[in-house]
Amino acid sequence: MLCLDAKPNKAHLKLAELERAGKLTAVITQNIDGLHTAAGSKTVYELHGSVHRNYCLKCGKSYSAEDILKSEGVPHCECGGIIKPDVVLYGENLDDRTVTGALSAIERCDTLIIGGTSLTVYPAAGFIRYFNGNNLVLINMSSTPYDNKADLVIHDKVGEVLDKIKVN
Ligand SMILES: [Zn+2]
Known about the structure:
This is protein acetyllysine N-acetyltransferase. The active site is at 48 (proton acceptor). The chain is an alpha/beta fold. The protein folds into two domains: 3-48 and 95-163, Rossmann fold (3-Layer(aba) Sandwich); 51-87, SIR2/SIRT2 'Small Domain'. The strands form three sheets. The chain has a three-stranded antiparallel beta sheet with strand order 4-3-5. It contains five helices and eight strands; from the N terminus they run H-E-H-E-E-E-H-E-H-E-E-E-H. The termini are far apart. It is 24% helix and 20% strand. The protein is globular. The chain has helices at residues 10-20, 35-39, 65-70, 96-108, 158-163; strands at residues 27-29, 44-46, 49-56, 62-63, 83-87, 111-115, 135-139, 152-154. The chain binds zinc ion.
């Protein structure tokens, strides 16, 4: 169930703060809630899309998530076309440009912080292989298959951990 009233949490806000301070290049997420953008992050690769972007399959007109919730049944555009959310449904391919952007950010970065994932869901888990930098940091409640490859492993809630970072 989608909750449009969800607000960015401490992790979303801290990542946006780090980007504003020039210490963070990009955020890559599998979530479709759009909360990183809502928190103020500018460079966000939403691998599975966002429920806040919807478009008509016929004419391409954009619709907000509110527009979709207002409609009954399958939402239709004023032109008669079906409105589809810009999210990747099971069995669909990820968007090429988003994947390319995300992989290029990972390849170029010196420090990669991965938080809140057990790293068992592909394809995102496979993205780690593109990292050539110096510091791999994993923040997750439980252990992951990559814990032994990381330079720093923190088993805790990602929001609590990121919240402790002081940005100068
Ligand atoms: Zn249309």
